[in-house]
Design a protein that fits this description.
Layout: E1 2-3, H1 5-19, H2 22-31, H3 34-42, H4 50-57, H5 71-79, H6 87-95, E2 102-103, H7 152-160, H8 173-178
Parallel strand pairs: 1-2
Helix pairs in contact: 1-5, 1-6
The structure holds zinc ion.
Zinc ion binds next to loops.
Length: 188
């Protein structure tokens, strides 16, 4: 079935939210300050029910089982995870949910990470103060092009040892499949 990239991302995120365990949902909620979720709701970026808002205000949102009213938040949270991912990666993920999809259009404009050289950032202001999903290099902005605590050379050295910059976790081969890298045909 042919779908636009945005349709495929929406479908994949719905599948993902639908299959998330209560424990995983809880983990996401615990990591996100309540104010952030409330701000998203007040700005109408997510539509939380009255009940969902009440649970947040009473700080009862982290009790298991996680209430359905928060699915809009999980959707918003997880949807962005597909930004800059290869079309083929999204298609493969959808296959795991028994959806055979061919994405009919190209990806959003991307910038290459200075450290790992994978295309993990948006362009212009979209990239400012965001972190590389692979190596954790922070993009910064015009005034501060390197807000990282280490030099680019040190960061590149860590990447060559397969380590992320801050948590020093090993970089999985799975995440490397997700993004285009320097020299990929599709991106050049
Ligand atoms: Zn990187």
């Amino acid at each position: 079935m042919k779908k636009t990239r945005i349709e495929a991302k929406i479908l994949l995120t719905r599948c993902w939210v639908g299959n998330l365990s209560d424990e995983s949902k809880l983990e996401i909620l615990v990591r996100t300050p309540i104010e952030v979720i409330l701000d998203l709701a007040y700005a109408c970026i997510i539509e939380l029910s009255e009940n969902g808002l009440e649970l947040l205000k009473k700080k009862k949102h982290t009790e298991l089982p996680i209430h359905k009213d928060f699915d809009a938040f999980f959707f918003e949270h997880l949807f962005h995870d597909w930004n800059y991912a290869k079309n083929s990666f999204i298609e493969n993920e959808l296959k795991q949910y028994n959806h055979t999809v061919k994405i009919s259009d190209g990806m959003e404009p991307v910038s290459r990470c200075l450290c790992c050289e994978y295309y993990t950032f948006g362009v212009g202001e979209e990239a400012d103060w965001t972190e590389c999903s692979i190596c954790e290099w922070m993009w910064g902005d015009k005034n501060d092009p390197n807000p990282n605590l280490i030099s680019l050379e040190q960061a590149k050295h860590l990447f060559s040892e397969n380590k992320r910059i801050y948590d020093k976790k090993k970089i999985s081969t799975e995440i490397l499949k997700k993004y285009h890298k320097k020299g990929d045909k599709e991106i050049c």
